[in-house]
Amino acid sequence: MTPNYSYQEDFSLRHNNVEPADVSAMLKTIGVDSLDTLIQQTVPAKIRLEQGLRLPDPKTEFAFLRDFKAMMGQNQIFKSHIGLGYSDTIVPTVILRNILENPSWYTAYTPYQAEIAQGRLEMLLNYQTMIIDLTGMELANASLLDEGTAAAEAMTMLYGQRPAERNSAEAYFVSELCLPQTIDLLKTRAEPIGIEIIVGDHRNFDVTDARFYGMMLQYPASNGEVFDYSALIAAAKENGLQVVVAADLLALTLLTPPGEMGADAVVGVSQRFGVPMGFGGPHAGFFATKEKYKRNIPGRIIGVSVDAEGNRALRMALQTREQHIRREKATSNICTAQVLLSIMAASYAIYHGPQGLKKIAEKIYGLTELLAVNLRKLGFVLENTNHFDTLTIQTGAQTSELRALAEKAQRNLRYTATTTSISLDETTQEADVIEIISFFETLKGAKTSEKNVTWAIPAALTRTSTFLTHSVFNKYHSEHGMLRYLKSLESKDLSMVHSMISLGSCTMKLNATTEMIPVTWPELGKIHPFAPASQTKGYQQLVADLNEWLCEITGFAKMSMQPNSGAQGEYAGLMTIRAYHASRGDHHRNIAIIPSSAHGTNPASAVMAGMKVIVSPCDANGNIDVADLKAKALEHKDNLSCLMVTYPSTHGVFEETIQEICAIIHENGGQVYMDGANMNAQVGLTSPARIGADVCHLNLHKTFCIPHGGGGPGMGPIGVAPQLVPFLPGHVNDGTSGAVSAAPVGSASILAISYAYIAMMGGKGLTTATETAILNANYIKARLEKEFPILYTGSQGRCAHEMIVDCRPFKLSAGVEAEDIAKRLMDYGFHAPTLSFPVAGTLMIEPTESENKDELDRFCDALLSIRAEIREIEEGKADKANNVLKHAPHTQSAVLLGDWDRPYSREKAVFPLAYVKANKFWPTVSRIDSAYGDRNLVCACEPMESYM
């Protein structure tokens, strides 16, 4: 025997989770002789790629971590005093280990199936309570993408809610002391919908000017000044002007909250509550407002309801506001938010409690005051009368000398031609301040050593109201207490650590541990998004490599990594198309044709980009009606901007006419936007460019392994054809404009996850992943189709990577809805597939390549067992109203406490198949009454007695 000393582990075999013997068995069930034959029958030959992906050879997990550590080591970790909404912070290790590094938290999906998501729903309710308390407002959502996005959402929400006396006002005033990246993003979002942004000095703003419907202020301001806005806001309110305040959460533990000043909305970011800077993200933006705007607020709201047993239960409330319901009538396209980061921020507040947060804030304020006292003593002029954590100093001609001193000491300050701003944070110590003072001593050739500081914030600006009074913020301050609380919440939620989550169009695949490890490295986390380019060479290499690889995968010329969600990618892509048309003098091209089966974000994004939506119907087979599309394109050829199309289609089929469809749009002057939600069926087999698209977004949190995090973070970079490259999003920090996210590279730190996935899979591994995803979907289809109608297939009877199971016949035959099947699956240990999209009364199943045959069989066995339970109703053996499906899911209390009066056994309720007994997941609440929760909206933590 000769030992093989060249052996290298193949990561793709860890990711693509089907054994060769199982492949043969699955192909036999499907009825094909080989995987190649299945792919040929599924993917139209004319769109297939002629050659494999030209990507670097795959790396082992060990080699990747070694090489990536060296690459990211090119980043220089300077102490950041730049501020501008990004602060260094201390992540409590109990939160780092038990949330950020814990797959039970980061592999969960958005909590649409609330009965098996009570843990993260409770933490999101805690988050909303935290935001409401600190801002002094009445209502908050469960996060937005970043501060800039939150500010833009406030601007558009209030635009739609203009009071009668300002109903014709089209202008929005923005203080010049708002964050520059926020101003940039506001301009991007305002222009296509006809809002005029006017930036100026709020101290000179005339609130009686009838042109304006609203205004935005920063608190504290970007130069560090803490203004008392009370009189200005009062005057604005008297004149029908709506006011948004962007606020620093930590500062609000010391400062009078904007809600007490009369603000209509308060926005910001919770990053400094224990979430690393990460070169820009991900971080949870926050949005708080008044109760009267509850049906207009963007994003998800967590509300309190009751379950079928009368117990308190949490759910996502008022979902009829959201894009998946309202589509082109939606005012926001927000879908993925930042749930994992919201949970981290809420946990940080719980762990420290109100007094702990206040002590951290007081320390930062005290150190900033120490710096201010000594700088003034040296003779420097400060722009600040009042401050929290930031000072702006007039440094004039000495600015460049100061910069040299600071950079030699590895500190980043913020500079203009004649001023220097310094922001302190939770990690700052007295020694840091003394070193910073020494730079100024060098400039002056003098010494100072003043140590006496006093509270200098005026009484009118000092917070007197209490906050975070609920017991959850006042009882888990020991590590044991916090650890056990987090564990109790974690145990309530079903995630990928338990079983397959087969959500169609969501691609819940493996989030490999090796892919996740670098996210917590300081080389990624401790970099400010506006750090000098000389300090970010590791990130630059990451972005450059990922750009090259994703261009190879998509066939496009260039990517923009800035969009920090799929919906933001849609918006960025449409704005790129808009700018392209404008450059050719075609400003009038504003018609977006969108198939009726499209994701709800598509029409919502189009409206946000200033477009008029024309809906194109689908034919009886679910495909785009080409004749109708051609007629509409011809009708609107003079004003046609684009087509938005998902491929494979939202009904899980590779439409064979896709190239013809794209050609029709091009012939009539439009561009083709491809929604990349279903890219997991394309990689290595075809590409957006191959089918004829001009731009697409990629959901890196779907196809490229960023975990869903219970509802975020995500990333939605866009790729474009050559003619669109000049019109990709810019950013004020780079001296350009057109930002769609607060940071130039969006949520940059999680790009490392997708980078790792591609680097370890290689071109062949990625292609095999696509083929395996298609195999798994067709295997499930083959096992189910005799008992469940499969709604749509391709011309040869195949589905792509997902399929739609039609549950509507069961409503007629047994009174069973798709929702009943979804809830019953919980008793079998599974999260439901996508419910009622893209067709009402259906389930859309997407297994991905990461599930093995055993798991696929368990899932199929569960659905077939449920079909047998439906048949019992159809045959009169079970009651239509009182049966195992209508009472699902079943909790421990339901089967153990009180008399059992149901016409089926306890065992049937909770152990319907043998495999369930070995690894039972228990829902902690029974079916939730959604209507009750919307009628009795409660979006903050209630008194403790309501938990009993």
UniProtKB/TrEMBL annotation:
Enzyme class: oxidoreductase
Chain ranges of the Glycine cleavage system P-protein N-terminal domain: 14-440, 455-732
A Pfam family matched in the record: GDC-P
Cofactor: pyridoxal 5'-phosphate
Record's keyword terms, sorted: Oxidoreductase, Pyridoxal phosphate
Sites of N6-(pyridoxal phosphate)lysine modification: K702
InterPro entries registered for this protein in UniProt: GcvP, GDC-P_C, GDC-P_N, GDC_P, PyrdxlP-dep_Trfase, PyrdxlP-dep_Trfase_major, PyrdxlP-dep_Trfase_small
Record bears the keyword Glycoprotein: no
Catalysed reaction, written as an equation: N(6)-[(R)-lipoyl]-L-lysyl-[glycine-cleavage complex H protein] + glycine + H(+) = N(6)-[(R)-S(8)-aminomethyldihydrolipoyl]-L-lysyl-[glycine-cleavage complex H protein] + CO2
Record text on subunit structure and interactions: The glycine cleavage system is composed of four proteins: P, T, L and H.
Family, similarity comment: Belongs to the GcvP family.
NCBIfam families noted in UniProt: gcvP, PRK04366.1
Role according to the record: The glycine cleavage system catalyzes the degradation of glycine. The P protein binds the alpha-amino group of glycine through its pyridoxal phosphate cofactor; CO(2) is released and the remaining methylamine moiety is then transferred to the lipoamide cofactor of the H protein.
Record protein name field: Glycine dehydrogenase (decarboxylating)
The organism of origin for this protein: Aquirufa antheringensis
